[in-house]
Amino acid sequence: MLQYSQRKVIASRVLERILALFKPVLLRTAPKDSHAITSPTVVLVEPFQMGDVLSLAVMIAPLRERFPGAKIFVWCHSRNAHLYQDDLRIHRIVHGPFPWSSRSSKRGTLSQWLTVLRSCREMRAYRPDIAIDTRGDIRSQALMLLAGCTQRIGYTTYVGSNIHLRGLLLSEPLDDPTVQHRYLRNLNALKPLLGFMPELHLPALLRHRVQPPEKGESTIVLHPGAGWVYRRWDEARWAALIGELQQLPGVRTVLIAGPGERELCHQLSERLAQPIEIVVTNFQGLLDTMATASLFIGLDSGPMHAAALMNVPVLALFGPGESNVWRPLSEKSETFHHIGDYPCHPCTQRACVRPSDSCITRIEVEEVFRAAVRVLAIEGTRA
């Protein structure tokens, strides 16, 4: 379980109590019976990282099945507003800067906080019927309250941590003391609406279905980037792995990168004995590239979650993150996570107490290579 400081735990509870005092003023009407609503406005609230927002995809199909005429909104950080822009199942994306979800220690400018309030006003104008917070975050629950959402579903436990709320801002609080995989946790949040927890069905990113590779060729897509520095595998290991993969018969290797990762991929390519294709693209281009992949190899990052949600086989390399919450659930996927000698795990990833011997460095090139051979079922090669 992730242990946050007592200061943060207490601050969350105090903020909850203060905001609860304003609940009668902020709410326009009493909560409606979700079973009596045929075409509700449903808001999925997730102002944090790319993987968090992508994890909401597993909820869309069950919501559509229960409420065919529903207007489904995604309320997220502006940097993730593009993730569902081509998904016809989503009615609208509302976004804001949300300073608390930044990886920096800055608390945000006055302009950012004013933009957050404008985002709340925009959402309030849509008169949302139902809002869901799958993280268990007091700030997300505050957003639902400020937007005047009449039925507010959310967890009282911040995902996988020691922060426990009382559910004072929620109309239907969910108690979840155990750590669940994020996809399953998201599906469990639909219980108050459906009466049961729906099954997980992949692919959940339906616009980009996985296409079979050309006969006789397997494409391995690799993404060496990660938003948090302590999640990254070093370049020497990436180069050694790619070098071995390039020797496999009938295998094409592709490095993918976002606009800010171009230099990382070019530095990595300079270490290789053979040239490698590098695709620097936006999110939609990333999905197009992965749609033809036979295998994806990456870190605990947004592209890894996108590959898993597309049901692409994934080899996921975990370091300080929580693999029990975020491991890929797509077919033939494997997770590498060696934390037995690390009592500091899980950590907040703001700093590392063992920087010269971090947990991500315990993953060996050979074990990842052998797993790739197993997934691709290449005969005559060590596995």
Q: Within the largest sheet, what's the order of strands? A: 3-2-1-4-5-6
List SSEs in N-to-C order. HHEHHEEHEHEEHHEHEHEHEHEHEH
- Which structural category fits the helices and strands? alpha/beta
> How many strands in all?
12
The CATH first-level class of the largest domain comes to: Alpha Beta
What's the story with the biggest beta sheet?
Answer: 6 strands, parallel
Structure description:
The protein has helices spanning 6-20, 23-26, 50-54, 57-66, 110-125, 138-146, 182-188, 191-194, 235-245, 262-269, 283-290, 302-309, 323-326, 365-376; strands at residues 41-46, 71-77, 92-96, 130-133, 151-155, 172-174, 218-223, 251-257, 277-280, 295-299, 314-317, 334-336. It contains 14 helices and twelve strands. It is 32% helix and 15% strand. It is of the alpha/beta class and 383 residues long. It folds into two domains: 6-194, 3-Layer(aba) Sandwich (Rossmann fold); 218-376, Rossmann fold (3-Layer(aba) Sandwich), CATH 3.40.50.2000. α9 links the parallel β7 (218-223) and β8 (251-257).
Describe the structure concisely.
The protein has helices at residues 6-20, 23-26, 50-54, 57-66, 110-125, 138-146, 182-188, 191-194, 235-245, 262-269, 283-290, 302-309, 323-326, 365-376, and strands at 41-46, 71-77, 92-96, 130-133, 151-155, 172-174, 218-223, 251-257, 277-280, 295-299, 314-317, 334-336. It is of the alpha/beta class and 383 residues long.
